[in-house]
Amino acid sequence: MSEIKIGVITASDRASAGIYEDISGVAIQDTMKDYLSSDFEIVYRCIPDEQSKIEETMIELCDEAGCCLVVTTGGTGPALRDVTPEATEAVCEKMMPGFGELMRQVSLQYVPTAILSRQTAGIRGKSLIINLPGKPKSIRECLDAVFPAVPYCIDLIEGPYLECNEDVIKVFRPKQK
After folding, report:
1. How far is CA 148 from CA 66, 89, 167, in A?
2. Which of 39, 77, 89, 176 has the maximum number of C-beta atoms within 10 A of its C-beta?
3. Short-list 47, 25, 33, 27, CA closest to 4
4. How far apart are CA 44 and CA 89, in angstroms?
């Protein structure tokens, strides 16, 4: 079992009910496998779009499973059942608004409806939680934009050292003196 654990949460009523396959959660897992050269374990959950269930699952993955990074997909739009950002804010001690700002900026290059997205990120203990949109193409575009800062953020919150495949993603860590 790896010391590094990455949580993946899909918030979707239909995918959690088995009405359709969770291709978004798979897209996140595939992207992590592309990015990371460190050994790591994925802790995956597919749950309904219910704020209490999303909060409970985030707390479980951060506090009990020990995930240094929890990446969510789904529930970031303006629809009534879209409550993932609210769940994230409820369980985090610190919000990291720059993640959502950058993801929307990147997504706006592709679709004007990106302005409707409410992605965000926050810190819970020694875990970084990032909310992503629901479409696999958008997931990769957003992760390509923000992931260069993720390993250093995890360093700063005293998480494990993430090594990345520099041929796939160039991460930034300030030079040590």
Report:
1. 22, 23, 13
2. 77
3. 33
4. 21
Count, residues in the chain: 177
Helices vs. strands in the chain: H and E counts, helices first: 7, 6
Nearest to 104 by CA among 136, 145, 163: 145
> Cα–Cα distance between 40 and 23 in angstroms, integer?
21
Instruction: Read off the pLDDT of residues 157-175 as tens digits, 9 standing for 90 and up.
Output: 999 999 999 999 999 999 8
Residue 165's SS3 state is: coil
pLDDT number for residue 142: 97
Residue 1 pLDDT > 70: no
CB proximity list for 123: less than 8 A, separation 6 or greater: 92, 93, 94, 96, 129, 157
Q: Which domains does the chain have, with CATH numbers?
A: 5-156 (3.40.980.10)
Q: Which two tokens stand for residue 61?
A: 């993955």
The reported pTM is 0.96
Phi, psi of 46 (to 5 degrees): -120, 115
Closest CA to 119 of 151, 89, 149: 89
CA dihedral 13, 85, 45, 20 (to 10 degrees): 30
- 112 phi and psi angles, rounded to 5 deg: -70, -20
